[in-house]
Write a structure and sequence with these properties.
Blueprint lengths: L1 E6 L4 H12 L3 E5 L9 H13 L5 E6 L3 H7 L7 E3 L3 H9 L5 E5 L5 H13 L6 H16 L2
Parallel strand pairs: 1-2, 1-3, 3-5, 4-5
Helix pairs in contact: 1-5, 2-3, 4-5
Length: about 150
């Protein structure tokens, strides 16, 4: 599985995530700066989001200092359901109920052990269609169409 990963800075938590993906056998596409440099967070969020909706990757992971900026930016890409997750239970819920396809993380709030737990939960859980959540996702899709 291909995972697009983006961040506005390459801090240790990002490197831990890239190492996690390698160890688990995922192929990652990196959209971010070299260590010690920065890129605008909307730019990396757009690139990751476009990869997911255009099929170059199956899912995305984004980082910024709070995680909020990349979450907002990624959700502007039609078809993206980006979820800001600070713990494994939120990641599970984002997958199970919201069919989230981009995981957003804070470089400030998440420790290396916690990022592993969040990623484990993210990859373990998948959306199972059901009438209640399908109806909610249909409403989200309708909101996407209203932007035209």
């Amino acid at each position: 599985m291909k995972i697009s990963v983006g961040a506005d800075e390459q801090l240790p938590i990002v490197e831990s995530t890239l190492n996690y993906l390698r160890k688990k056998g995922y192929e990652s596409l990196w959209y971010g700066p070299e260590r010690g440099k920065t890129k605008p967070w909307p730019e990396v969020a757009r690139k990751v989001g476009k990869d997911v909706v255009e099929g170059r990757s199956q899912e995305g992971i984004l980082f910024c200092w709070t995680g909020t900026g990349v979450s907002i930016a990624a959700n502007k890409v039609r078809g993206i359901r980006a979820a800001l997750c600070d713990d494994p239970e939120t990641a599970r819920g984002a997958r199970d109920w919201n069919n989230a396809n981009v995981l957003c993380l804070s470089m400030r709030r998440i420790s290396e052990p916690m990022v592993t737990e969040i990623l484990d939960a993210w990859f373990k859980h998948h959306y199972i269609p059901n009438p209640s959540d399908d109806a909610c996702l249909a409403q989200i899709n309708a909101l996407d169409k209203e932007r035209d």
